[in-house]
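Hey,
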Amino acid sequence: MKRLSEIKVGQFVEIVEFENSDIFIKLMEMGCIPGEIIKVEQKAPLGDPISISVVGYNLSLRLNEADHIFVKEIESLN
């Protein structure tokens, strides 16, 4: 398991769990729920923020937010 902040651009991952309960509700309202497949779309030139694709739209997250999301890498989208 890795933190979302460690994932490279272009990679697909599955959300596993959240470390911080303070951000949990905010992320759930935006479609970031355990089991959801997301793709890291872009990272800003200095690495913060990052843009992810989740449930059909792009979402920008600060690195400190992405640090609280644990994900697992996906072999393929089949």
